[in-house]
Amino acid sequence: MRTRYAPSPTGPQHIGGIRSALFAWLYARRHGGQFILRIEDTDRKRSIPGSVEMILGAFDWLGIDIDEGPREGGAYGPYVQSERLELYQTWAKWLVENGFAYKCYATAQELAEMRKAGGGYDRRYRDASNAEINKLEARGAPYVVRFKMPLTGSTIGADMIRGEVEFANEQLQDAVLLKSDGYPTYHLAHIVDDHFMKISHITRAVEWLPSFPLHIRIWNALGWAKPQFAHLPVLLNPNGKGKLSKRKEQFAGADGKSVPVLAQEFIDAGYLPAAVLNFLSNIGWNFGDDKEIFTTAQAIKRFDLRDVNPANSAYPIAKLDWLNSQYIQRADAAQLCRLLKPILEEAGYAVDETRLARAAPLLQVRLKSTRDVVPMAGFFFADWALFEAPPADILVQRKMDGEGTAGILRGSIPVLQGLDSFEHDTQYAAMQDYAKAIGYKNGQVFGTLRAAVSGQKVSPPTFETMEILGKEESLRRIKLALQSLAPA
RNA sequence: GGCCCCUUCGUCUAGCGGCCUAGGAUGCCACCCUUUCAAGGUGGAGACACGGGUUCGAGUCCCGUAGGGGCUACCA
């Protein structure tokens, strides 16, 4: 089994393409075959330098390994279409010589007029006389090569996902195979390449279904054995309206949260590659057994293109947050630290690894994305000497006033001061007694301390936080808060 | 407009004629736990687009309608 992903180098890697590639890759791996990357750069106008690196970067990040491709090489290269032009030209010529295709000299202006009149290309050169052709040829008139589509009858295509699909031949135009600049169109190039690269299963998005009969006719004209075809459903916008692939970058969803679409945006948003892979494979396909969380290795054992749901799906991005948080919770603590460190550093913090290791267990159940570490726990890594007491609206808890808050802070100092161990359980026991003694609820006391030491309304648990800050620093912060509340 | 594809809770999905008084997940709501936020636990609301057939029996098969998506380039 040999499958491929054949993107055009038109910019950053889009999530929709990754999903299509993932299905092809899963299928190849399931059957112990090869997964090939081929770059389809036959549209010179749309090619963007650096695209291949971005595509490769996305696959590397996700761990989708490529067996053959422009970087990996392979026995069937080159894997970039612009380096295979002669091949396409040879076969275009062969099709013309054998009566399956013809040269068309219609100018852009003529074509525009035909389109305006409706109906598209009128096949005016399909049966042009030799004399006419020779005249144009002698003049060196530019031409394209068009495929002679049967005028009557129908073509039936077998699709692995939806069964047989029948098309009336008269509906199809005489498609251009070779452009006037000598470059092939997708229609010719992909067939020549899939044949010579021995691709066994062509997977591509459903938008290719309408040209499926054309491709079948070309394969037949060339006399080559056809591979199997699977037209994959596409991702729609989260609201179900329109293709997601039209979005060129992340955008705001209905809930106001940003919806990532580019591989780099998933990285930047703090999603884990394993979570993204799990997320993607659950759209249009499912693991079975009502199991939502599974490894790629497990998915490979079960994946089958035949099981892919033919319907397009709205992009269920909210589910990724949940999946990602599940992966973070299950992650190895040391590994989580490795992920968190660069994010904190990028946010401007100097990360002490020991401290990070102590904080990590507190963060593991609280992060939806690794990015969340910054607002949740950045304060652990800031320069403590620069810490300032938070404003009163953060310090003073609900149903409390400044006076009561100050009282709690003032009273906490000797209690904490007198502790032999500053381990969180010890603090908890002592502060619980203290709260009871002064007639406040645990939440009021603990919350006040939380705000004082972390400077935040939301933070990891108060006593665990103070344990990491240490007795001295914690007390210093409590005193600071006291001062800001009741300036001397 | 023409052609093609698709249609189960808001969303992702299970279901391949009787196991369905339609299952899971997410999201939402409630309660429990609880020092905030989470996590976790329990429970709840929530779907077979519609109309015809076929069949003893249809979410499952067929036709039509509607809705959605796509294609209709010397782009892929």
Query: Which regions contain 5 or more consecutive residues with pLDDT less than 50?
Result: none
Q: Which structural class matches the secondary elements? A: mainly alpha
- The gross shape turns out to be elongated
The averaged pLDDT comes out at 95
Write the topology of this structure.
Layout: E1 2-5, H1 15-30, E2 34-37, H2 51-62, H3 85-97, E3 101-104, H4 108-117, H5 130-139, E4 144-147, E5 154-159, E6 163-168, E7 176-178, H6 186-196, E8 201-205, H7 212-222, E9 228-232, E10 235-236, E11 251-252, E12 258-259, H8 263-268, H9 273-281, H10 296-302, E13 313-314, H11 317-330, H12 333-346, H13 353-364, H14 373-377, H15 392-395, H16 402-417, H17 424-438, H18 442-454, H19 462-469, H20 471-485
Helix pairs in contact: 1-10, 9-11, 12-13, 16-17, 16-20, 17-18, 17-19, 18-19
This protein binds one RNA strand of 76 nucleotides through helix 4, strand 6, strand 13, helix 11 and helix 17.
What report would you give on this structure?
- With 488 residues, this protein is mostly helical.
- It has 20 helices and 13 strands.
- Helix 7 (212-222) links the parallel strand 8 and strand 9 (228-232).
- The radius of gyration is 32 Å and the shape is elongated.
- The protein binds one RNA strand of 76 nucleotides through helix 4, strand 6, strand 13, helix 11 and helix 17.
